[in-house]
Amino acid sequence: MMTAELFDADAGVQALVPGALLLRGFALAHEDVVVAALSLVVADAPLRHMTTPGGFRMSVAMTNCGVLGWVSDTSGYRYDSRDPDSGQPWPAMPAAFTELATSAAARAGFDGFVPDACLVNRYDPGARLTLHQDRNERDFDAPIVSLSLGLPALFLFGGTRRAERPLRLPLRHGDVVVWGGPARLRYHGVAAVRAGHHPRIGAHRINLTFRKAG
Ligand code: MD3
Ligand code: FE
């Protein structure tokens, strides 16, 4: 399926396309602290369905932690230092999140990556994310690190033009992907999540993306 299925000495590490490294199960060793920290974040800044610039309600529910948070409303997409629902700063980035993101990025060759934003996406059954590029960050030289939790999903990743047919990659609980370099501006999305139950997370999929936004 993959054009390059290059496993290195470390079982479970897979190069997807140039600049993208899949670390299967990378977060499983830190599962308890990560899930506990996530519970505190969503208690402070509840997940909500944002509105697209075109006026549609997103099927994915979102919140953020860190100095900056990604927001969408009818005026556009941007990073903001405050939660628009509360007017308060976003919850601080938990140390467990920073440590996970920094160590995964280093494993992929991005030493010194320190995220200032973590976007939390919750997919209930049927929720999906259409193909898009992540272009709201200031510095495309920094990678994006993503962590999948809960129900599995088919991740779609295309090329640097929307028309390119996307590859399909199943992502499961505990998987981490580092997207940097030439992969950073690829189109990507998530197919509709199928109903199910995950013993730890319940009836949804959660994805955390760690970014250097500012
Ligand atoms: C490839 N989230 O929040 S994470 C997003 O599973 C987003 O919730 C998806 O796309 C999710 O913007 C995918 C993996 C990911 C994130 C950013 C990327 C892949 C990427 C940026 C460039 C290329
Ligand atoms: Fe994205």
Describe this structure in words.
- The protein contains two helices and 14 strands; from the N terminus they run E-E-E-H-E-E-E-H-E-E-E-E-E-E-E-E.
- By secondary structure, it is mainly beta.
- It has an eight-stranded antiparallel β-sheet with strand order 1-2-3-12-9-14-7-4, covered by helices on one side.
- Strand 2 (13-17) and strand 3 form a beta hairpin.
- The radius of gyration is 16 Å and the shape is globular.
- It starts with 5 loop residues before the first strand and ends with a strand.
- Mean pLDDT is 94; it is low at 1-8.
- Bound molecules: N-(carboxycarbonyl)-S-(naphthalen-2-ylmethyl)-L-cysteine and fe (iii) ion.
- Fe (iii) ion is lined by residues 132, 134, 188.
- N-(carboxycarbonyl)-S-(naphthalen-2-ylmethyl)-L-cysteine is lined by residues 119, 121, 129, 134, 144, 146, 157, 177, 179, 183-184, 186, 188, 190, 207, 209.
SSE blueprint and pairings:
Blueprint: E1 6-7, E2 13-17, E3 20-23, H1 31-44, E4 61-66, E5 69-73, E6 76-80, H2 95-107, E7 117-123, E8 129-132, E9 144-150, E10 153-157, E11 167-171, E12 176-179, E13 188-190, E14 205-211
Antiparallel strand pairs: 1-2, 2-3, 3-12, 4-7, 5-6, 7-14, 8-13, 9-12, 9-14, 10-11, 10-13
The structure holds N-(carboxycarbonyl)-S-(naphthalen-2-ylmethyl)-L-cysteine and fe (iii) ion (FE).
Features:
single chain; 214 residues; mainly beta; eight-stranded antiparallel sheet; 14 strands; binds N-(carboxycarbonyl)-S-(naphthalen-2-ylmethyl)-L-cysteine; binds fe (iii) ion
